[in-house]
Amino acid sequence: MTEEQEKVLVVDDEESVRNLLKRILEKAGYQVFTAADGKEALYKVSLQDAKVVLLDMKMPAMSGMEVLRQLTAESLGYCVIMVTAVTDLETVVGAMKMGAYDYITKPFDPDEVKQKVQKAIQKWHRLLQEKHRYLELSRNVTEQTERMQAQFTELVQSLAREHKLLCELAARQPGGERLALSKLPRELQEPMSSVEEFRDALLRILRRA
User: Fold this and answer.
1) What residues contact residue 36 under an 8 Å CB cut-off, 6+ apart?
2) How do residues 63-121 score in pLDDT, each as one tens digit?
3) CATH code of the domain covering residue 91
4) Dihedral Cα 103, 52, 43, 10, nearest 10 deg
5) Mean pLDDT in the chain?
6) Residue 111 main-chain phi, psi, to 5 deg
7) Helices (H) and strands (E) in the chain, counts
């Protein structure tokens, strides 16, 4: 554990269950918040910035699956552990496909609860590191691409000017135009009317490389 307590949100419509999970996790060193229904859960999860959510599958008004759907739809990176009283494999599989990290069943094994929350916290930190790395790589690729585009544009403009001058000088040499330009790639053996035309010819050459 780090010096700052990791935050966990426990969501269950049964007060006894909320209190039990809260005690288990607080003894393990977590900062625990609770919610009695789905609406309160969606409010508190953003307010408290919890990393892990223990979410009861069956609650009145808004089910755990509905809450999970909203949490995963927003792509905010919460690690959701579903809580169920029975091992309903079909429902559990559906929750996992929707983005739940894991599940626990009632009655709880305190050690299992702590272990799964710890693993979820670790996964959250890995996802955060990957997100930071992704943003860093994305920024680097964007900056390098923009720099290369600027350099390519400058190079094309410079080469286009030199190509135009070459064609003009070659045309002044009696019978020498073909000889002077024949050593160039065929795309550049004719005068160009614009920088854009020269650029397109250069790109065709580069595609063959």
Assistant:
1) 11, 12, 13, 15, 18
2) 899 999 888 876 567 899 999 877 667 788 888 888 899 999 888 899 999 999 999 99
3) 3.40.50.2300
4) 60
5) 87
6) -65, -40
7) 7, 5
Identify the domain containing residue 93 by its residue range.
7-108
Fill in the amino acid letter for 149. Q
CA torsion 82-84-88-94 (nearest 10°) is: -20
Contact 45, 72 (CB under 8 A): no
Q: How confident is the model at residue 195 (pLDDT cuts 50, 70, 90)?
A: very high
pLDDT of residue 176: 55
Give the pLDDT of residue 1: 41
Task: Give the domain-ending residue among 108, 127, 148.
Answer: 108
- φ, ψ for residue 101, nearest 5 deg: -80, -40
Residue 91: inside a domain, yes or no? yes
CB atoms within 10 A of CB 13: 16
Same domain (yes/no): 151, 59: no
For 183, the 3-state DSSP assignment is coil
52 three-state secondary structure? strand
Q: Report the distance separating Cα 199 and Cα 81, nearest Å.
A: 56
What is the DSSP code string of 3-51? SSPPEEEEE-S-HHHHHHHHHHHHHTT-EEEEESSHHHHHHHHHHTT-S
- Record the pTM: 0.67
Rounded CA gap, 81 and 92, in Å? 10
